[in-house]
Specification:
The N and C termini lie far apart (about 35 Å). The chain has about 150 residues and is of the alpha/beta class. Bound molecules: adenosine monophosphate.
């Protein structure tokens, strides 16, 4: 079996994400693979028909979220020794952006947590499930439990 060469770690900075980070780091070390990381800031709704109006200041909120996310992601990259060109901060749908960046960088393995911010109601969280269904490379869902 060929070793993995480029691993993409999707991190949501939610509880237990450290377990996912450690698993991806260990795999990258074991396979001597490049490790890239991605965090996606969810798009805020600009309009919502149920509220009727455009939400003001959405751009400001988005840039504050992006700025905070950038600090956390850069710190994590520094801790893991990941260079800037392998550190991806994106805005949009987490599932779509994780898949898009994985294809862009030719990742051969995506590492996600089985669950994150979207809770434990499903067997697999919605982002993890979406990535698993649509990715063109292998996906490792690190089992996280709510107990
Ligand atoms: P979920 O399916 O949302 O419960 O999350 C499962 C996993 O998907 C998390 O443990 C992360 O690995 C990944 N993930 C979820 N949301 C994001 C995000 N905004 N940015 C990067 N990865 C994410």
């Amino acid at each position: 079996m060929q070793n993995y060469q480029h691993i993409l770690l999707a991190v949501d900075f939610f509880e237990q994400s450290q377990l996912v980070i450690e698993k991806a780091k260990n795999l990258a070390d074991k396979y001597q693979a490049i490790l890239s990381i991605i965090h996606v800031v969810d798009n805020l709704p600009v309009t919502d028909t149920s509220y009727g109006a455009t939400i003001p200041f959405d751009m400001d909120l988005t840039s504050i979220l992006m700025e905070n996310a950038k600090k956390r992601l850069n710190q994590l990259a520094k801790d893991l020794g990941i260079p800037e060109q392998n550190t991806h901060l994106e805005l949009g749908s987490p599932k779509s952006e994780i898949i898009r960046i994985a294809e862009d960088i030719n990742a051969d393995l995506i590492v996600v947590g089985s669950h994150g911010r979207h809770g434990f109601a499903l067997l697999l969280g919605s982002t993890a499930n979406g990535v698993l269904h649509h990715a063109t490379c292998d996906v490792l869902a690190v089992r996280l439990s709510d107990d």
